[in-house]
Design brief:
By secondary structure, the chain is mainly alpha-helical. It has one domain (about 1-25, about 35-110). The protein is about 60% helix and about 5% strand. It is built from four helices and two strands, in the order αββααα. Strands 1-2 form a two-stranded antiparallel sheet. A hairpin with a 2-residue loop joins strand 1 (about 30) and strand 2. Helix 1 (about 1-25) runs parallel beside helix 3, helix 2 runs parallel beside helix 4 (about 95-110) and helix 3 (about 60-80) packs antiparallel against helix 4 (about 95-110). The radius of gyration is 19 Å and the shape is globular. The relative contact order is 0.17.
Length: about 130
């Protein structure tokens, strides 16, 4: 029962992770005349950390898949043009990197092979 509650909470919070990271992905700072897209980097790191953390705490593959789909849906919905014509994900290299990077890391982490917590017993070599 606890795993079910944890999975439902993870799925719901994935929408929040997708929304917050989509809002901040355009943030940047200029260092020595070069724009550093810290929002894009931080957003991708948060998405990876969130999905990896879910996997490590024992969320099933289906729960992880649903969490990833909700996160992607949140990013997709917020990337649409708003009623007033405003956009959170403009057509720029940062916006394109966000719209390509989030699905790539999500798919990679969902289908990454699981490693058993038990280590395989190595055969002892007796001479």
């Amino acid at each position: 029962m606890l795993k079910l509650i944890l999975t439902i909470a993870a799925i719901a919070f994935s929408a929040v992770v997708g929304a917050v990271t989509t809002v901040i992905h355009q943030s940047h700072v200029t260092v020595a005349g070069v724009d550093v897209p810290w929002g894009l980097v931080l957003g991708l790191v948060v998405v990876v950390a969130w999905l990896l953390g879910l996997s490590l705490v024992g969320i099933s593959r289906w729960g992880l898949l649903l969490s990833g789909l909700v996160l992607l849906a949140s990013v997709f919905l917020l990337s649409q043009r708003g009623p007033g014509g405003s956009v959170l994900v403009p057509e720029s290299w940062i916006g394109n990197a966000w719209m390509i990077g989030v699905p790539l890391v999500t798919v990679a982490l969902i289908f990454w092979p699981r490693v058993s917590r038990r280590r395989a017993q190595e055969p002892s070599t007796q001479s």
